[in-house]
Amino acid sequence: MAGELYRKPIMFAVVATVVILIGTIVTMFYPMFTEGMHPKLENLKPYTALQLAGKDIYMREGCNNCHTQTVRPLKTEVMRYGEYSKAGEFAFDRPFLWGSKRTGPDLARIGGKYPDAWHYQHFEYPQAFFAQSNMPKYGWLKDRKLDPADIESHMKVNGFPYTAEDIGALAAKSELDALVAYMQVIGTAVKKSAPPVTAVAPEEKNPLEGDEKAHKRGEEVYKQNCEACHGDDGKGGIGPSLTDASWLNIAGDISDGRIYEIIANGTPSGMPPYANQLDKDKIWSLVSYIRHIQHKDK
Amino acid sequence: MRDYQYDHQTVKGFIVSSIFWGVVGIVVGLWISIQLWKPELNIPPFFTYGRLRVVHTNGLAFGLGIGAIFGISYYIMMRLVKRPLLFPKLARFHLYLFNAAIALAALSLFAGMNQSLEYAELEWPLDIGVVILWVIFAINIFGTIIKRKEEQMYISLWYIIATVIAVAVLYIVNNLAVPAGLTKSYSVFAGVNSANVQWWYGHNAVGFVFTTPILAMFYYFLPKSTGLPIYSHRLSIIAFWSLVFAYLWTGAHHLVYTPLPDWIQTLGIVFTLFLIAPSWGSVVNGYYTVGADWNKMQTNYLTKFFIVGITFYGLQTVQGPTQAIRVVSQLIHYTDWVPGHVHMGTMGWVTMTTAASIYYIIPKIYNTDIYSIKVANTHFWLVLIGQLMFSITMWITGIQQGALWKATNADGSLKYTFMEGLAKNYPYWQLRTVAGVIFTVGMLFFIYNIYMTIRKGKALAALRA
Questions:
Q1: Are residues A172 and A276 in the same domain?
Q2: Which distant-in-sequence residues (6+ apart) come within 8 Å of B276 by Cβ?
Q3: Is B182 on the interface with A (CB under 8 A)?
Q4: What's the rounded mean pLDDT across residues A72-76?
Q5: Residue A21: inside a domain, yes or no?
Q6: How far apart are CA B244 and CA B236, in angstroms?
Q7: Any idea what the CATH number is for the domain that residue A274 is in?
Q8: Which residue, A185, A203, A230, sits at the end of a domain?
Q9: Hey, which residues 292-311 in chain B have their CB within 8 Å of chain A?
Q10: What is the phi/psi pair of residue B123, to 5°?
Q11: Cα–Cα dist B30/B46, whole Å
């Protein structure tokens, strides 16, 4: 009699346990013993001592409450952040740090996207880069020293290889150094996706030339996307000055088409590509703005 | 007789403690809601958003939620088995240990000791404490039920038993870790596998903390306060078994479009859709119960708490499965839609039902009536308005965020930078803080009412003595 079950608490508990365990076994326990759950990319390297210290700080400060670390295989998401996340990228993350909310942007491809200097300054004062950012300041981490003995024990628990020099070198580092080192390694086991194709001929002229308002529009775009690195009026900062001769005359006078290409595709020396973020009109308006400040300077 | 009195002290202790931790959790919630639009309110190192958010979630899920569940489950069980707790002194120790654990948990989270597993942030020494707490709870629940004086186990007891079993399995497995010192550990699970274990846990924390014990309260206190028997015993049997069966399959809907193997995602989505049925089994059972006499909505002040509460449970369990579907997930996942969803469940269903249960219990314990039905009604309307405003603003801004992230220009380039999308959240985030304040004021009315009822009860007891 099924009705009996509700008079027998022990029997009831046993049946309830079995019922609860079925889904548990199929979706959680069984997969653990399949290869698909333990993938590892060939070129994925264990974290160095400094990087692991940075990851520990990332966990301590709860960065994963606002930042995800997984790019979904969706067109616009790949355009915004880079290659979609691969299963084999996370073998050394105990636990995973994919997060569940993007109050800030995804960080799965942040490694190598900006130079170190960008990160140091951004952690110090995020609003200097993005006036409307709501990220807390983390400059205080630079006043806190790392504890090499602690980090060594963490390396051991994770089974990551290290040398005595690696550990010794930590004593001179701050928590901010570690966090930046971690930022720069996130997602680097996957090759960057090829820069988007820009169909602009180097000799092409700016179609907005003569448009008096173009440089004004360009200035708006510049303030949002470029100013943080290239400074007020292109005077330079983390990135090079956009008004001095050494840049404008790299190989003779730089052409409009060449400036367009640099903005669209980025450079190997640390400038990220913007072809996915800015449409043609915005990029050309930036070219107009750069020409404008260049002439203003003279 | 003495024993009964003793047990009530423990029940009351848990209720008062849970309200205290609830206040802490809600205040921190207001604080972080302001931090989102006013980053100057981040005060490093202890009070940045990244640390405070976990104090908010843990404070409310474990402090308010689990605390109330311990106390109210003890109360319900004693009534249903018609005898006092088998181990009253152990229950008293349970109460003290609970408060010590929650206090230490809050301090450790302020200090940044964090496993980075959502709703399982506490580091390993506290995990052990939580397991001990749970074992004590289980001993008293099972012991008392086995030694019961009433043969038939009522629905609420089924839900309490399922809660005790499931939470034990979930909590222990997801927190398995290798210690690296007293305040740090590394999960035994890595990468994709750890994601799968975490969300099997994470979603079932919702299932077996925010659902089954709350349903136990609902099935007990709704008939008690209305005097109407549960509409269908058969429906409650079907709903119970299909709910506890299906819940464990659904965690992967949190990982749609991640590198988790596709078949686990799909299975998770399918079972999530199935879960509408058992959830609505309880919703329908509740509606038809009061359907025998809808006048109760007016004549008994608690009825509306339960009926509106179960309505939000019903909405939650339709919205949730909708979100699990891939095409919806890709728009709203990672946006503010999700906190909007969660808070409908926690503020609308869990807090509403728990508060009504406490309104029922406290006067019973003190052998008196509630201090003021008017204050209770004010509490009801304020938390209802606050919660609706919270959820609706977050749904709007969530859909907007998702749409801005996806928007492209004619040439295929992205239309908005991330920052342009973020800036558009500000007015909604500010409105959400207003909503939170309204909800908090409502809760203050609740606390005042409970406090005054206790005072009244004590005064009466003094008179009688």
A1: no
A2: B317, B318, B321
A3: no
A4: 96
A5: no
A6: 12
A7: 1.10.760.10
A8: A185
A9: none
A10: -75, 170
A11: 16
Pair (A178, A289) in one structural domain: no
Q: Residue A94 and residue B189: Cβ atoms within 8 Å?
A: yes
A231 and A138 fall within a common domain:
no
- Please give the Cα distance from B227 to B223 (Å, whole number): 5
Q: According to the model, what pLDDT value does residue A258 have?
A: 85
C-alpha torsion sign, points B264, B270, B272, B275: negative
Strand partners, B408: B414
Q: What's B43's DSSP letter?
A: B
Report the sign of the C-alpha dihedral through residues B426, B427, B431, B432, in that order.
negative
Q: Residue B157: its chain A contacts at CB < 8 A?
A: 9
* Residue B63 touches partner A, C-beta closer than 8 Å: no
Among A6, A61, A87, beta carbon nearest to B153: A6
Question: What confidence score (pLDDT) does residue A237 get?
Answer: 87
**Rounded Cα–Cα distance for residues A156 and A152 (Å):** 6
Distance of CA B40 to the CA centre of its chain: 30
Mean pLDDT of chain A: 91
Is A287 among the domain residues? yes
**Complex ipTM:** 0.96
Tell me the residue range of the domain where A236 lies. Answer: 214-297
Q: Is the dihedral of CA B430, B436, B440, B442 positive or negative?
A: positive
φ, ψ for residue A263, nearest 5 deg:
-65, -45
**Residue B145 sits at the chain A interface (C-beta within 8 Å):** yes
Same domain for A229 and A176 = no
Total CB pairs under 8 A between chain A and B = 264
Domain check: are A56 and A153 in the same one? Answer: yes
- Cβ(B45)–Cβ(B112) under 8 Å? yes
Point out which residues pair with B187 in neighbouring strands. B177
The two most distant CA atoms of chain A are separated, in Å, by 96
**pLDDT at residue A197 greater than cutoff 90:** no
Pick the more confident residue, B310 or A275: B310
User: What pTM was computed for the model?
Assistant: 0.95
Q: HEC string of A115-135?
A: CHHHHHHHHHCHHHHCCCCCC
- Which DSSP letter does residue A92 get? T
**Amino acid, res. B350:** V
Tokens 């529009």: give the residue.
A217
Same domain, A87 and A131: yes
**Is the torsion defined by CA of B74, B77, B78, B79 positive or negative?**
positive
> Nearest CA of chain B to the CA of A245: how many Å?
31
**Residue A179 is assigned to a structural domain of this protein:** yes
Q: Is pLDDT above 50 for A88?
A: yes
What is the total count of domains within chain A?
2
User: Can you tell me the distance from the alpha carbon of A154 to that of B417, in angstroms, rounded to the nearest whole number?
Assistant: 38
Residue-wise pLDDT for B194-248, tens only, equals 999 999 999 999 999 999 999 999 999 999 999 999 999 999 999 999 999 999 9
Inside any domain, residue A192: no
Of the partner residues B246, B258, B415, the one whose CB lies closest to the CB of residue A70: B258
Interfacial B residues in 3-22 facing A (CB < 8 Å): none
A245 and A177 share one domain: no
Per-residue pLDDT, averaged over A33-52, amounts to 96
Q: Which two tokens stand for residue A251?
A: 């190989």
The average pLDDT across A194-219 equals: 79
Under the banding of pLDDT at 50, 70 and 90, the label for residue B3 is very low
Residue type, B295: N
pLDDT score for A244? 79
**Together in a domain, A279 and A169:** no
